[in-house]
Amino acid sequence: MKQKKTFLGKKSWQTVCFPVTSLVIIAAINFDGFWHVSIGRDSLFIPPHLILYSGLVFLFIFLYKTKGSVPKITWLLAALVVISGPFDDWWHTNFGVEQINDLLIVWSPPHLMVELSLIGLFLIVLKKLVIQNAKFSLTLQWAAIFSLVLITLMPLDLLSPYQVLGVFGGLINIFVIGFLVYTYFELRRSYLFPLLVVMFLLSIPLYLQEGPITDFEKFHEHLPIITLAVIFLGPAAIVDIFGVTKSNLFKTTLFLLAYVGIFLGGHVLLIDGYRQFWYVLPVFGIIAYPSALFSYKILNRIDPTGKKLHNVA
User: Fold this and answer.
1) Which residue has the higher pLDDT, 179 or 58?
2) What's the mean pLDDT in 101-115?
């Protein structure tokens, strides 16, 4: 019997449950960031943690229901995610609770364990959605992956208070963003705007943080939510309007140029703390095409026939 198709893809519980659960997990992680800064970490069982644990439970249940078609590493990754909870509690008990300006708030061993393990699980889910010939479900799942990668690499971001590796860290971020955007197009997703809308909605809790941040206050000054939405979504709108019929290489290059000019440039122009980084904008703009070309070369090595990303028999 032929499966019915919806805007999510083939009518299947997997095309709904997997991406929704992944997005709930990302929303809980961002909610957790808001909670720690604005309220604190008074218990292992604070609301964002409970939402995160619930999302993980459902993700594991859904993966178990498809246990015959997932790689064995799935259960190793799931075990690492489970272990990261008590490991994180032990870490805080013995080493204290990190402040927002502490690099370990993102890169502590238990946090890295859960971040990297979840990225692996999300990629396994993505593969299943490709097999299901999913449509918008791929956009939702890629939004979860994209968001989690950016959270994990936040210390490299020049717009973060950490700025690990300085400008070089920012360059790494540009290459990673280029790779994620190019891969999204290779998944046969034509429009970038819906992806960025989902990612923006997921990130809103991070922009609602309120707390006493003195030494790094300038790096936590946030633009009004409407202004932020415009400069966050603007690059995607430009690509979808002017590049939708062009090659993936062209679209990725155009996005990176718009991202540097509108999103990064907007922060440099509108926030005093970032104006010192004006000189990096032309540098980042220059590497837009090399970044897109790098993504093309890497994916061509990983999947030269397109079978893995396109579900070609």
Assistant:
1) 179
2) 86
User: CA Rg, the chain, in Å?
Assistant: 20
pLDDT at 100: 67
CA-CA distance, 180 to 134, in Å (whole number)?
A: 18
Per-residue pLDDT reduced to its tens digit, 245-283: 899 999 999 999 999 999 999 999 988 878 888 999 999
Residue with tokens 């973060």: 160
Residues 58 and 192 occupy one common structural domain? no
Q: State how far the Cα of 159 lies from the Cα of 156, in Å rounded to an integer.
A: 9
- 6 three-class SS: strand
Report helix, strand or coil for 5.
strand
- Interatomic CA distance for residues 120 and 68, integer angstroms: 18
Strands (E), the chain: 5-6, 9-10
Q: State which amino acid sits at residue 116.
A: L
| Residue 185 amino acid letter | F
User: 15 with 3: CB under 8 angstroms?
Assistant: no
The DSSP symbol for 260 reads: I
**133 in the same domain as 116:** yes
Number of domains in the chain: 2
Q: Is residue 2 part of a domain?
A: no
Asked if the structure places residue 270 within a domain, the reply is yes
3-state secondary structure of 245: coil
State the residue range of the domain holding 304.
158-313
Average pLDDT, stretch 176-202?
93
pTM over 0.85: yes
- Spatial distance between the Cα atoms of 304 and 297, rounded to a whole number of angstroms: 9
Q: Which residues contact 12 (CB under 8 A, 6 or more apart)?
A: 3, 132
Q: Flag whether pLDDT at 9 surpasses 50.
A: no
| Residue 273 counted as domain residue | yes
What digits encode the pLDDT tens for the residues 116-154?
Answer: 999 999 999 998 888 877 788 899 999 999 999 999 999
Q: Which of 217, 205, 276, 201 is nearest to 99 (CA)?
A: 217
